[in-house]
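Example record

The entry below shows one chain as it appears in the dataset: sequence first, then structure tokens.
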Amino acid sequence: MRILLHICCAPCSTYSVIYLREMGFDVVGFFYNPNIYPVDELFKRMREAESFFSKMNLDFIYDTSGVESWYKMTEKVKDRREGGIRCNICFAIRLDRTAREALNRNIEYFTTTLTISPKKSSKKIFKIGNIISKKYSVKFLEVDFKKRDGFRKSCIMSKEHNLYRQNYCGCEYSYKERLVSLK
């Protein structure tokens, strides 16, 4: 069974890949994050994820399009705090693109590393994933990667693999929130 794993960053993919392999899946990585700001950060995260997938001898796909569309879809909620409606829109954009990629490649399942973050609601992500699943007739696998101590394990694995770990979610809005919190 193949699964297309949406990857937000290399550190979040570490334990997620192990978990899915233990479930018997042949994992294909898919990096699609039009939210990541600035563009240098986008490519840094993408290269890091690609390198990790290469070390794990797994297929890796990426798509760096959609930035303008992402801004248009989140413009009205840009002032909302991280974790709310803005993030739900962002999750939907990325999961929709992942499901379409799975469909185009005849991959039966898709899921996302986003659930490994203690700051993200797996319940919200599952709801969005299941709606999109019905839209494209591709199965969404509900996996809360932070369970079984997944986040901690991903941090350990990231250090073992010497992976770059960012200090903000990714979008321009969360980046600016992070800068304000550091003052």
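Notes for this example: The longest strand covers residues 26-32. The chain has a mean pLDDT of 95.
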